[in-house]
Amino acid sequence: MKISILSFDLSHNCLGRAHLLAKVLSKKYDVEILGPKFGKGIWEPVKNDNSIKYTTLPIINIPNIFKKIDGDVIYAIKPKGTSFSYGLIKKFISQTPLILDIDDWELGFFLDYKKLGIIKDCVTFWNFNNFFYTFLLEKLIKFADNITVSSSFLQKKFGGVIIPHVRDTDFFNPQNYDRNKLREKFGIQNKKVIMFFGTIRKHKGIDDLISAIDFLKDKNIVLMLVGVDKKDHYVRELENLNKKYIKFISQQPFEKIPEFLSMADLVVLPQKNSHSARGQVPAKVFDAMAMGKPIISTNISDLPKILKNCGIIIKCGDVKYLANKIRYIFDNPKIARELGGKARRKCIKEYSFKAIEPKLFKIFGEYDLKSIK
């Protein structure tokens, strides 16, 4: 059976979820990821992964689009114009089963805008992924044959089966990396390394983390922000703070993520309490868990449940408390190691490829004519 996975943009970080699901499904099915490119090429972190086939879709040439979407099942990632709407039209034309994956509350991102921003966005009617089309497509979710989601917030809102941002815990294994050698390479041998890995956005609370580090006044702390886009306006704002303890490191291929995380002493996920953050589970929590790192996170979305008994949860925006917990981790290396060990064991048990395969294969098995016969 062939699965056509539709990503609304092959050039940006939304491709990460499609790539993850493709990696799991490709163990049993023929899988292809299709979508338009609104950037220069395939998203940098996954472009070198030759195990997954990518096909670029034109934005306007409808007959050509539906000719290329030739899977026995369509798996649309996000209820967006250039993924879910393509899947819906193909479903109604050819009766191809359509499964929708929702890993963010897309309208939540728009609701974090000011009202004027939403109005301006709606005026760009040629943008099939704007607020108007996203609002409309959310109303059409009921026409999907099946739904997968990444969080309990999304499950309550849309139904479906929770498929977390799982990780290959055989590949994400701290024993595979020489931590000291890598730290020497970056000149951080004797530093206390806090790491944030992923796309920098305001709702992810990096400003709170910086304020907490300033509060500590510890010259041995280094904050590594890995995966930044130097062209991004918010990243430039952070650079303009001129904090000597921050290292800005560009986007890295997926295969480099465990290598960087091996250097970290602590991973902090200071998500803010925003509309967009409530529906989102940051995939990077599973990277850190798989690599056995102590994690401090805010009490947003499913993070308290995910990190129960294996991480530290704090209130959103409580900078002083965050600073105290950072100090606590650095002052208690034994507890830090214990938390990291528990996090890895939980990741293997609940958030690994092996843990999620039966659930995902069961969903697609319903449409596998070979298995039915």
Task: Explain what this protein looks like in three dimensions.
- The protein is of the alpha/beta class and 373 residues long.
- The chain folds into 2 domains: 2-166 and 353-372, Glycogen Phosphorylase B (Rossmann fold, 3-Layer(aba) Sandwich); 174-350, Glycogen Phosphorylase B (Rossmann fold, 3-Layer(aba) Sandwich), CATH 3.40.50.2000.
- The protein is built from 18 helices and 13 strands.
- A 7-stranded parallel sheet has the order 3-2-1-4-5-6-7, sandwiched between helices. It has a 6-stranded parallel sheet with strand order 10-9-8-11-12-13, with helices on both faces.
- The longest helix is centred in the C-terminal third of the chain and has 18 residues, at 333-350.
- The model has no long low-confidence stretch (mean pLDDT 91).
